[in-house]
Amino acid sequence: MKILSELKYDSDGLVVAVIQDRDNDEVLMVGYMNTEAIKETLTTGRVCFWSRSRQKLWIKGETSGHTQTVESVAVDCDGDALLIKVDQKVAACHVGYRSCFFREVSPDGESTDIVGEKVFDADTVY
d(Cα 4, Cα 109) in Å, to the nearest integer? Predict the structure, then answer.
């Protein structure tokens, strides 16, 4: 896969992957991918990440069933980030919201307000 050699990886061998809903362009989450995760994503059509905390590959939805099916993959102008449009089943956020970006920061930066709605109970899924 030629794209693997064209990307600019960070010192840990990772690139940022922004995950966006294919239907409404909502940004659902951000994750990291190494070459193995990118290969898996492109080969299977299911989004795969590199877990920095667990130091292993993980396919989104393998535990929850909240899968991400790839619609398209784009690379940014610097070659250090991917934009992946997906068909998201249920939710991307592991705490129960559809998007991981469910909190809005106040203009003074002193607080956050929840602007999203929970779509599932994380305690019953994980």
Answer: 38
Confidence of residue 4 (pLDDT cuts 50, 70, 90): very high
DSSP state of 98: S
110 part of a folded domain: no
How far is Cα 34 from Cα 51, in angstroms, rounded to an integer? Answer: 10
Q: Which residues contact 4 (CB under 8 A, 6 or more apart)?
A: 35, 38, 39
Enclosing domain of residue 11: 2-94
pTM for the whole structure? 0.94
Distance between CA atoms of residues 92 and 19, nearest Å = 9
